Amino acid sequence: MSKVLVVLETAGGAIRSQSLPGITAGKQIADARGGELHLLVLGADASAAAGIGAAGYGAAGVHTLSDAALEPFTAEAWGDAVVHAAKTLGASVVGGTASSALRDCLPRAAAILDAPLCAEIVAVKSGDTFTRPISAGRALLDETLSGDVVFFTARGSEFEPAAAGAAAPVAAIDGASVDTRGVEVLGIKKTESARPALTEADVVVSGGRGMREGENFKILEELTDMLGGALGASRAATDAGMVPADLQVGQTGKIVAPNLYIAVAISGAIQHLAGMKGSKTIVAINKDPEAPIFQVADYGLVAKWEEALPELVAAVKARKG
Ligand SMILES: Cc1cc2nc3c(=O)[nH]c(=O)nc-3n(C[C@H](O)[C@H](O)[C@H](O)COP(=O)(O)OP(=O)(O)OC[C@H]3O[C@@H](n4cnc5c(N)ncnc54)[C@H](O)[C@@H]3O)c2cc1C
Fold first, then answer.
1. 3-172 and 203-320: same fold?
2. Of the candidates 30, 134, 277, 308, which lies 20 to 30 Å from 219 by C-alpha distance?
């Protein structure tokens, strides 16, 4: 029976919410193949696996592969572990949500196995044919993969988060020790933030080149914090050093799909839209009525941010009491 193996990410002993759409994509592929869904938990310890097994998510099994080399994350170690797990379990499809980590390690695992990978799929057409955007989202391509094992990454905004179901058995995969391929983590510089992760936030407030300088993002941060959201930015804003690069939303940044996306002084270039157009409600503030962002916005305000944002912040403050 065809086994579809979905790689999960965990934090604080629990599954990360960004992994849930990847499970849904994997389940659709497993169902289309008449096969089984299996989940893979990687890490220094398997503490998250019990909770994941209890929630099941429609899987036939939850597998853990524990090795000290898997934390902190490196694409080399995770890629090696995914290869080991895929071979041990006899998986015919391997994938997960197109997060920063899995976008990095799954292509490596596919390359080691000389297997094809379909990146950022937005729909499952059949057990081996997946739809993915090309040309920065201007067109969609149905791609059929063939081979003993094939790989996918799924765009988180295009698949519903998997829901808990019947419990699934948890089993450990005997580890051959994970090969880090000479990569050593010397240190980690973390951006400390009380805000939710950009890819997991319910509300994202993003600023663009029209904000002109980093100092001006303070008012966006105030709005973000009042709404309990995450701060984002266009590439023009991150390239100009107004905010850190890890806040970039778009084709070459983070893909987000919050309930509310507020784009301020962002023109709406196709590469930016590729990262946020799956948002449930899009609000755009731009002084140019012709800005393409208004074509995807549910609510548009033609105004200078210097005038609109203080009013918006005051209105939200008044509403919150
Ligand atoms: C291969 C490739 C990958 C890319 N990947 C990404 C990506 O991942 N993410 C991304 O964002 N971009 C990406 N880009 C860049 C993208 O093409 C655009 O250049 C970029 O998104 C533009 O950012 P922006 O909208 O902030 O700036 P601009 O296009 O310059 O727009 C600024 C907007 O601000 C408005 N404005 C100015 N002043 C004010 C004011 N006072 N009040 C209100 N509005 C104001 C203007 O009317 C304008 O619409 C990529 C490009 C390439 C070629």
1. yes
2. 277
Cβ atoms 1, 31 nearer than 8 A: no
8 contacts 40 by C-beta, under 8 angstroms: yes
237 lines ligand 1 (CB under 6 A): yes
Q: Is 195 in the pocket of ligand 1 (CB under 6 A)?
A: no
Tokens of 192: 């400390």
Mutation test residue for ligand 1: of 272, 296, 302, the one with most atoms within 8 Å of CB = 272
Q: Tell how many helices (H) and how many strands (E) occur in the chain.
A: 9, 17
The Cα–Cα gap between 25 and 122 comes to: 9
Asked if residues 297 and 283 have their Cβ atoms less than 8 Å apart, the reply is yes
Domain extents in the chain? 3-172, 203-320
DSSP alpha helices (H): ranges in the chain?
20-33, 49-55, 75-89, 100-112, 217-226, 235-239, 270-273, 293-296, 305-320
Q: Using CA atoms, how far apart are residues 19 and 248, in angstroms rounded to an integer? A: 20
> CATH assignment of 203-320?
3.40.50.1220
What is the per-residue pLDDT across 34-49, written as a single tens digit (0 to 9) for each?
A: 999 999 999 998 889 9
User: Residue 314: what are its φ and ψ, rounded to 5°?
Assistant: -65, -40
Question: What are the angstrom distances between the C-alpha of 262 and each of 189, 236, 267?
Answer: 28, 17, 12
Question: Each residue of 83-120: pLDDT tens digit?
Answer: 999 999 999 999 999 999 999 999 999 999 999 999 99
Long-range contacts of 293-301 (CB under 8 A, 24+ apart): 293/263, 293/266, 293/267, 293/268, 294/268, 295/268, 296/268, 297/263
Q: Is the Cβ–Cβ distance between 207 and 217 less than 8 Å?
A: yes
The verdict on the CB of residue 87 being under 6 Å from ligand 1 is: no
Which DSSP symbol is given to 275? T
